[in-house]
Amino acid sequence: DIVMTQSPDSLAVSLGERATINCKSSQSVLYSSNNKNYLAWYQQKPGQPPKLLIYWASTRESGVPDRFSGSGSGTDFTLTISSLQAEDVAVYYCQQYYNTPFTFGPGTKVDIK
Amino acid sequence: QLQLQESGPGLVKPSETLSLTCTVSGGSISSSSYYWGWIRQPPGKGLEWIGSIYYSGSTYYNPSLKSRVTISVDTSKNQFSLKLSSVTAADTAVYYCARDLGGYYNSHSIAGGFDYWGQGTLVTVSS
User: Fold this and answer.
1) Hey, how many other C-beta atoms are within 10 angstroms of the C-beta on B26?
2) Please, which pLDDT band fits residue B18 given cuts at 50, 70 and 90?
3) Which residue(s) pair with A21 in the sheet?
4) Chain A contacts of B108, Cβ < 8 Å?
5) B21 and B84 Cβ atoms separated by less than 8 Å
6) N or C: which end of chain B has fewer CB within 10 A?
7) Burial level of A97, CB count in 10 A (0-12/13-18/19+)?
8) Which positions in chain A touch B60 (Cβ < 8 Å)?
């Protein structure tokens, strides 16, 4: 199985400031034949299902605000919230779909400082 | 707007079989572009993919659960279902159904991950 790790476990950021979440996979999720990273990011608020934010590591899902961006390749990835808003308080998960079983990171909790 | 809704018992006894159904509305489960998946989340914990199914019946399962899991599809009802046998307290979780964008199965897929999710249903395993 591909093991996904995330750092930090939690972070508190002031409103309007940048939040950065890191995700690392135990093996590369870059598929050489199409040069795509099989990595997605989700946001989960309490009592709600996860919401897809980013796929192919950097493609924003339709309707997701452009303050959310994804970057990275191979085994190291980052989700950046450029200017944190109150509604961004949530747990964020990365997920690889390069191989089955699909696996998720343990999550990073984002709060307001 | 696509909607998914899980249904089934909220309480299952140990050693019995957990059965859930996901009803898809606002779109066809027979779309050639998508798979349909089950993901679970124990209370206060992270997400675990259980498995995914194509409308043709082709399935992919998490090996950690494969011996106990069956996912099936009923295209006439626009539903897919999950059965998990020999449950224990460790199977207590919120169970979600979701649309799988198929990124893994098709190298030409335009997207990946799970985009539409049901609200989830808590299944407690207890006597």
Assistant:
1) 10
2) very high
3) A79
4) 34
5) no
6) N
7) buried
8) 100
